[in-house]
Structure to design on (489 residues):
């Protein structure tokens, strides 16, 4: 099975992605497939300060519960409230409407993350 | 030791199933999605590979006597072709396993067949042969788990699907009865049983016929994995061995586990005296259903408290019910909190979520 790994994002070994342009964060196509049907998402509040690799929220599927980790440190500037009623968007559109939060972050932190090719190698 | 694989493993791999380890077996957990598979079983039909279930065969003059002394129900009540839900308990009355016992037809090579849960077949074989020898009974015990495959066809359309392949006679089988029938040229033991709360059948057959039986259904029936089997059984409050009870980690008697109907105290069996005493005294904790009234999903091991925060029990199974779209759980609470409608809290990641105690099933039968 092949999974979508967009070229314009950075990745974490724990399967989160961050868009360097917008600071938007989500989980990867591979991660949503592993989890199965997502039924509940617990997210932080706007204004919360996160450190890199903080467990900042939880994605629950029917079969499992998984922490979500912050790819970089920063302030939460937006939260995808739509997921409260439509958690299935994480499965349907993990890089689009299924995004989780947006962060205001320091770009230098991106150096510690996986490139799309590195991440492809990890999930191969 | 490597994982055991069912005879249909290759079929599942080709179909793109995801696999999981369960009871020492590598079994399909999901083919398409748990929700899709769950819904198919509630609305039409699904087929499960349950070849990880054990098969222990008993034959000989004392077969009934041995079963009677090692299971809690009354085996003597069975006519040929009858099936019976039962439990196997230790001296303390704690459930070692739950099982279905079949009395086979007259003239069969085997007198009784019982089906232990995944990974329990060797332990049960040991238990049966040890006690046979200790009690000097004349009965042959065979662990035939590797010789058989087993599928469950479940859902409102399941009877017609099975009848179309096994013959109309199967429609005459009342719940918890079974008979031989041929499916795709394979001799099957077809039982009107299942563990999803829906109509349906379980078929046991020689493992070399597994592919033919599976293929006979696969085109008209949603293949389902253990993931949806778990959500389906939870909606009906059915126990999962090793999770809702466990002989070491969470020993529970049939009375505590809400399956006191499997206990016949008129018979003599291992654990009888302990269970008789418990029936007399009453249970301290009861197995209940839980419906969360707030957002969150109950999971195995989560604490159950009073609204004031005093611990009164523990969740043993939980999920977001695909049928109801509500978080449901099963678990044990102090008897004082077991009444329908009682408000308790399930502690989800440190926060107590308002929860209503409910007697399963969670959905209408």
């Amino acid at each position: 099975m092949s999974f979508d790994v967009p070229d314009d994002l950075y990745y974490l070994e724990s399967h989160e992605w961050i868009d360097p342009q917008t600071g938007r964060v989500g989980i990867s196509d591979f991660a949503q497939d592993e989890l199965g049907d997502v039924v509940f998402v617990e997210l932080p509040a706007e204004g919360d300060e996160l450190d890199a690799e903080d467990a900042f929220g939880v994605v629950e599927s029917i079969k499992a519960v998984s922490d979500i980790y912050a790819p970089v440190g920063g302030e939460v500037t937006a939260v995808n409230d739509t997921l409260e009623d439509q958690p299935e968007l994480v499965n349907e559109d993990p890089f689009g409407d299924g995004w989780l939060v947006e962060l205001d972050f320091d770009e230098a932190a991106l150096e510690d993350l996986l490139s799309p090719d590195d991440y492809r190698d990890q999930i191969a | 030791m490597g994982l055991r694989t069912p005879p249909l493993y290759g079929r599942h791999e080709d179909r793109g199933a995801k696999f999981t380890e369960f009871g020492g077996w590598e079994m399909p957990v999901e083919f398409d999605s748990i929700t899709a598979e769950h819904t198919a079983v509630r609305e039409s039909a699904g087929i499960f590979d349950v070849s990880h279930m054990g098969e222990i065969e008993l034959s000989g003059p004392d077969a009934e006597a041995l079963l009677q002394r090692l299971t809690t129900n009354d085996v003597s009540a069975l006519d040929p072709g009858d099936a019976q839900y039962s439990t196997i308990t230790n001296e303390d009355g704690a459930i070692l396993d739950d099982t279905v016992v079949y009395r086979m037809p007259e003239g069969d090579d085997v007198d009784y067949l019982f089906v232990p849960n995944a990974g329990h077949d060797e332990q049960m074989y040991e238990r049966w042969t040890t006690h046979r020898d200790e009690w000097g009974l004349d009965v042959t015990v065979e662990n035939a788990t590797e010789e058989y495959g087993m599928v469950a066809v479940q859902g409102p359309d399941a009877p017609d699907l099975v009848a179309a392949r096994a013959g109309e006679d199967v429609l005459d089988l009342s719940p918890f009865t079974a008979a031989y029938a041929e499916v795709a040229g394979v001799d099957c033991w077809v039982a009107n049983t299942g563990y999803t709360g829906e109509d349906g059948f379980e078929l046991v057959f020689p493992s070399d016929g597994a592919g033919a039986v599976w293929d006979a259904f696969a085109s008209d029936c949603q293949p389902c994995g253990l993931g949806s089997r778990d959500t389906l059984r939870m909606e009906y409050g059915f126990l999962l061995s090793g999770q809702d009870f466990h002989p070491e980690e969470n020993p529970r008697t049939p009375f505590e586990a809400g399956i006191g109907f499997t206990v016949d105290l008129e018979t003599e069996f291992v654990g009888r005296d302990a269970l008789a005493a418990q029936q007399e005294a009453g249970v301290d904790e009861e197995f209940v259903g839980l419906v969360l009234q707030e957002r969150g999903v109950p999971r195995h091991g989560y604490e159950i408290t009073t609204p004031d925060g005093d611990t009164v029990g523990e969740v043993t199974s939980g999920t977001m019910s695909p049928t109801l779209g509500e978080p449901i759980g099963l678990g044990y609470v102090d008897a004082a909190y077991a009444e329908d409608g009682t408000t308790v809290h399930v502690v989800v990641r440190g926060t107590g979520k308002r929860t209503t105690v409910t007697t399963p099933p969670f959905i209408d039968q």
In short: Residues 116-123 of chain A form the longest helix (8 residues). Chain A has a mean pLDDT of 95.
